[in-house]
Write a structure and sequence with these properties.
single chain; 416 residues; mainly alpha; DNA polymerase, domain 1; hpI Integrase, Chain A; 3 domains; three-stranded antiparallel beta sheet; 18 helices; 3 strands
């Protein structure tokens, strides 16, 4: 596609004007973001030109990448340079900008050849949106390991190097995570083999089974939930939103990603019912809307939700005003309130937003609700998925235990 001559110093204010339409204040744009673009402008000046060229911008990003790897700039600054470059390129090619949340930056930056293999793999099949990032992360980490060893082609990697990767990764991961990592990488090697890409034949090695340990998963207790809700300032717009989200998670067991995608028309206010299609399973689900939670949602919609044409209920509290990207910001928000509540955290303790789901299941079990009903409420297709919650109800299990106080005991000797 042929482009008219564009100058980087003229493009920057035009890009900032577009970003202002997404809700950013002039102060944020010109006091903060302008500096991100100025670095790229300075790079052009050092090259002796201001005529925009995507290749020059890419060279600027490569320079920042090297400086980041050498520890001369912080990761946050490095990411802002990449974002600014991406916006300039998008404006150069399309004449406009489509706002997106750059939420999944990675430290595993790859060379062109490894990026080519990764992109080809991700486009080779119709990955589920919930697992595509997992595959990308695993393969990117895998290729980055070899790049750090000095390799730039999979043809130069041997079985010995693959074993070294497994040995290096194993101590940093749980058995379940290592199992998943090897599964993802095995699929990558199957793709390489099917497409005639030169690489070591290690499919059998990556198929070695790793038994998963059954872990008793924790949950948010009733007392902890009260303490967490007490940290929310419901006089602010953000507080009203956060209180509604957390209450929704605690009373319905909805996953964060389903709450993020919840739309205004998904709530039947007359019947007090929520109807959604689950992101994880694509199955339809109908749940009762508890009165207290409904009131919190109403308060947010009527008194705090920004005016917007978006159909999603919960929107960003700061510019740009739009729906939350996915469930990650909900989890981060919840973690902040957990910290403010002074709740001590330990690895795998279940004190996360997903722990609200287990909180609901535990309370339902304690109330005598059948496991089959709990499975329907949580949207589980398999009863096996619900068994994990049975281990949470220790108090009720104690009540089921036999009382030996009325049984006489006689000690007549020791059985050898």
């Amino acid at each position: 596609m042929k482009h008219n001559t564009m100058y980087v110093d003229e493009m920057i204010p035009q890009v900032l004007d577009i970003l202002e339409t997404y809700g950013y204040s002039k102060r944020t744009l010109w006091m903060n973001m302008y500096g991100e673009f100025s670095r790229i402008k300075s790079f052009y000046q050092r090259q002796g030109t201001l005529v925009y060229d995507p290749e020059i911008t890419e060279a600027c990003v490569r320079e920042a990448t090297e400086q980041y790897r050498e520890g001369r700039i912080q990761r946050s600054f490095y990411n802002t340079v990449r974002k600014a470059a991406s916006r300039l390129n998008e404006y150069y090619h399309t004449g406009t900008l489509e706002w997106s949340c750059n939420k999944r930056n990675t430290k595993y930056t790859l060379c062109d050849e490894f990026n080519r293999l990764l992109d080809a793999f991700l486009h080779s099949r119709d990955f589920h949106k919930n697992t595509k990032w997992d595959f990308a992360w695993a393969v990117r980490r895998y290729l980055y390991f070899f790049e750090q060893m000095g390799f730039r082609r999979m043809a130069d990697v041997t079985m010995k190097h693959v074993r070294q990767f497994i040995v290096a990764a194993a101590p940093e991961m749980t058995d379940g995570s290592l199992h998943n990592l090897l599964c993802y990488i095995r699929q990558f090697h199957i793709f390489l083999q099917e497409n005639g890409e030169a690489a070591p034949d290690c499919i059998e090695l990556l198929s070695y089974p790793i038994p998963r340990k059954t872990r008793i998963k924790g949950y948010i207790t009733d007392d902890e939930l009260v303490r967490i809700m007490a940290q929310i300032n419901t006089k602010t717009a953000m507080g009203k939103r956060d209180a509604a989200i957390i209450s929704l998670g605690a009373t319905t067991g909805l996953r964060a990603v389903d709450i993020v995608h919840l739309r205004l028309e998904d709530i039947d206010w007359r019947k007090g019912e929520i109807r959604i299609s689950q992101s994880k399973t694509s199955e339809s689900l109908s749940l009762p809307l508890v009165h207290e939670t409904g009131e919190l949602i109403k308060d947010y919609i009527l008194n705090a939700r920004p005016a917007s044409a978006y159909g999603e209920i919960f929107l960003r509290a700061r510019a740009p005003i739009c729906p939350l990207a996915d469930g990650v910001p909900v989890g981060d928000m919840f973690d902040q309130y957990v910290k403010k509540a002074g709740i001590e955290r330990k690895p795998y303790d279940g004190k996360t937003f997903h722990g609200l789901r287990r909180h609901l299941a535990k309370n339902l079990i304690a109330s005598g609700v059948p496991v089959t009903t709990i499975a329907q409420i949580l949207g589980h297709q398999s009863m096996e998925s619900v068994k994990q919650y049975l281990s949470l109800d220790g108090q009720n299990l104690k009540e089921c235990a036999l009382d030996f106080s009325a049984i006489p005991l006689a000690r007549e000797g020791v059985v050898m």
